[in-house]
């Protein structure tokens, strides 16, 4: 399949490939304009030749879609297959697909990729504020934070379209990101924590351990569910966060690496909590002996009756019912993490140390939430 290269600008080239015949009997001609980097003309031309080879391979493999005919929906399908599937965490990919299928593609999917203008994106974001856009049946539009999530996804995908040289610029960059009203993180104060700890007396040991450990360590729920006995050092009073358990419809329960590299961390735990963990380990060992061959030894700290890892939301559902039963102010299980961080900060702990303990990628994340 013959191909040629035409220089268009300082770093711009047009790729031309001829192949096959159209319904009118005329030879088909494919063109694509690219930008290349290089210190010399020879280096730039070599890069252009590489791109030409890729272009020919796409045409021969019937995977090339002319940018002028490429719809946003077709591009999204390609983006999901070529990039998202291998580069995004399962939960992130699931959430992105949900936003795409339920809102973004029904509104923008029919548009040609190279015809999307800033006004199209702006109108879509404004539509999300209107009554009837919620999927939970509640009145009103989406929250400003949820709308911003939609904007970020659209912006990120179109930025990749620019990198892949499908469009010259990102139309989402030409509108201001939605403003989000800052809400202070909900948490328990010291008196409420004392009431919570007192109310735990008499509850199942596994739930006591889950609450007390989260108050002490501030780990994420998925990290708590992914904790194994091998990650607990009873000699040095530490726990090591190296993985997290999550659940997705259609995929079930699975174990993954933590949210980011800084999420892998060693956390010092007070002696009182370590003693509680030791007591719970003894209880679990007795339970394992009672169950005999029905027990599946997975090594997880928090398990179901047969040793299988506890479901991701079992603790959070129990916690909500527990607070209601005891007449305590309702907060989510995740807000125990906020409580842990806030107590440390109020006690004068250095923000950098708190950020590291929480597994945040940078201190600015900690400051934005708790400052």
Write the layout of secondary structure elements.
Elements: E1 3-7, E2 12-21, E3 27-35, H1 41-60, H2 72-87, H3 90-108, H4 118-127, H5 144-163, H6 190-200, H7 205-217, H8 221-225, E4 232-233, E5 238-241, E6 244-248, E7 252-256, E8 265-268, H9 271-291, H10 314-326, H11 334-346, H12 351-358, H13 363-370
Antiparallel strand pairs: 1-2, 2-3, 4-5, 5-8, 6-7
Helix pairs in contact: 2-3, 7-9, 7-11, 12-13
CATH class identity of the largest domain = Mainly Alpha
CATH architecture of the largest domain: Orthogonal Bundle
Number of domains: 3
Q: Which consecutive residue ranges, at least 5 long each, have pLDDT under 50?
A: none
Descriptive notes:
The chain is mainly α and 371 residues long. It has 3 domains: 3-61, no CATH class; 72-173, Orthogonal Bundle (DNA polymerase, domain 1); 190-370, hpI Integrase, Chain A, CATH 1.10.443.10. The protein has 13 helices and 8 strands. It has helices at residues 41-60, 72-87, 90-108, 118-127, 144-163, 190-200, 205-217, 221-225, 271-291, 314-326, 334-346, 351-358, 363-370, and strands at 3-7, 12-21, 27-35, 232-233, 238-241, 244-248, 252-256, 265-268. The strands form 3 sheets. The protein has a 3-stranded antiparallel β-sheet with strand order 1-2-3, covered by helices on one side. Strand 6 (244-248) and strand 7 (252-256) form a beta hairpin. The mean pLDDT is 90.
Question: Could you list some keywords that capture this structure?
Answer:
single chain, 371 residues, mainly alpha, DNA polymerase, domain 1, hpI Integrase, Chain A, 3 domains, 13 helices, 48% helix, elongated
